[in-house]
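re: ur question from the group chat, yeah i did fold both. here u go
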Amino acid sequence: MDPFLRKRLTFLSFFWDKIWPVAAPDDGVPGFPDPAASAEPEPPATEPCSPPVPMQLFQALYDFRARCSAELSVSRGDRLYGLKEEGDYIFARRLSGPPSTGLVPITHLAKATPETLSDHPWYFSGISRAGAQQLLLSPANAPGTFLIRPSESSHGDYSLSVRAQAKVRHYRISTAADGLYLQKGRLFPNLEELLAYYKANWKLIRNPLLQPCVPQKLPQQDEWERPRSEFALRRKLGEGYFGEVWEGLWLGSTPVAVKVIKSAYMKLADLSKEIQTLKSLKHERLIRLHAVCSEGQPVYIVTELMRKGNLQAFLGSPEGRALGPPLLLSFACQVAEGMSYLEDRRIVHRDLAARNVLVGDDLACKVADFGLARLLKDDIYSPSSGSKIPVKWTAPEAANYRIYSQKSDVWSFGVLLYEVFTYGQCPYEGLSNHETLQQVTRGYRLPRPASCPAEVYTLMLECWKGSPEERPAFTTLQKKLSAAHRRLAPAHT
């Protein structure tokens, strides 16, 4: 009935708008026939998009009179959006006066900045969707407060954000060749006129536009915290206790590794504290943190990308299997160096294993995932959960009683040494987790791998002392492994 009457009795369009409003906010208020016309969708978390790149704004330096239908007449001071460059001309859309497009000589234009909009109290150029919500819901702003900002999810468009009682609604303002619109069919030459129309006809969007947002200083943003839209996930690299690891691009150009945290398994309330620890650590043998996305879900932890993947998989590859004992020992030295740094800062890894050491193109090794095991929920990371706890790498006191320390990390390092010298072989092969714990408690220790030097195996056994106090410190292990590497390397050259 609505489309029929609108089509046949167009002169009553104002009346139809009162009966059948056609705009809808992004929270899906029922009863609106055309929700797609105005809602600004939330950018998808799993498919991050690049940040918006606004069109170039120009200002006319001189009057120009069109000489043919393809050209656009402009007056000095007119503002225009440059849509496309065509030789010595700019195909532009005029913002002031009647909306129109056409070619204007480049010599008649000067680049202007979008900040001319900031003369208006309702325009906020450097604010995100989340920031707009936080600002509009602050005590200084009442229901009916609004602002316009650049759209995060659509290049060159804008968003109208309005406070409606205890929530904020966002409306997409789309940019077309001949104007701006919030609802299809209602074009405006600029934001000022669009806003004036919806102030007078606010029932079309079911939200009064009473006064511009009162600006206030938002809390200082953490320099590490970045929006998910800056990261594009390209290829899944693996999956572990903490989540999935993806190869991605940061801002479309910088290769990174993105760990997507499994919220169902993690104590997210403690995540911010753990991330603060990650930010404070900096060493060439630890994976470098680039950024975090901890506001909302899923949580991203973004680090440098190590192209050869984790050490366990690399050692099992044809390239890894071709390496001799000196290079294997160099891997052990590098890991011991990184763990010695964590030891100095009294940080317990809790899940040290070859799968959590990453390898770069230059065969540099870096320890990853330090401290994240602390965030696993108790029913996930406990002896009763069976396969979830990495029993074969875990010291007996940690597996049985959840007593973690630098010395339990030393036990795990001994198992990592076994992995290195067996080219990534699973320790205690053929035994279940329960059987492994039983055998280790009775005194069983892994045998010496064929390629492992005797002095290195002696260090493994020291790492596996039943009493934690008898196990060596990582600084001691680093010195002894470095000395062994110096002795071994000349003999194999």
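okk and heres the other one u asked abt
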Amino acid sequence: MTAMPGLGTSRLASPDLLRCVFRRHAAGVAVITAGGPGGPVGFTATSLTSVSAEPPVVSFGIGIGASSWPAISESDHVGVHILGEHQQELAATFARSGADRFGAPTRWRNGPEGVPVLDDVLAWLVCRVVARVPAGDHRIVLAEVVLGDPSGAGRPLLYHQGRFNGLRD
């Protein structure tokens, strides 16, 4: 650790520093899905961002070592699902390495463009992938919204301090 006048106890850049800082950042929880040659794939993402309204474009990050990356790297379309606070187990399932993400109790259907669409989410989008931008050991995927449904009921699921949480009033 390095002491810098007026800056408290600062640390040099490292993966651990980034993880420690972002544990303090509350983020919405999404699940990204795609159809793959071996069946549907998906993962939990806290990196979802609205990029542009005209045209409507979103982005998310995915590690190139992730089990979903090979399918996402080839998919023309992806599904974006905003999870509700009642879906902590679903978020954990899609975050867990080696989990049967689309087996019971996950409820889903084949949606437009062959994208798996999860049931009972707050909102979902089907998006056309327009770019995959290298960013260290990840790729930032830019995807243009094709269609979606924002009509799910409930409150959003958040990720903070390494745990899934609901909003507090």
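fwiw on the second one: Residues 15-23 form the longest helix (9 residues). The first strand starts at residue 2 and ends at 3. idk if thats what u expected
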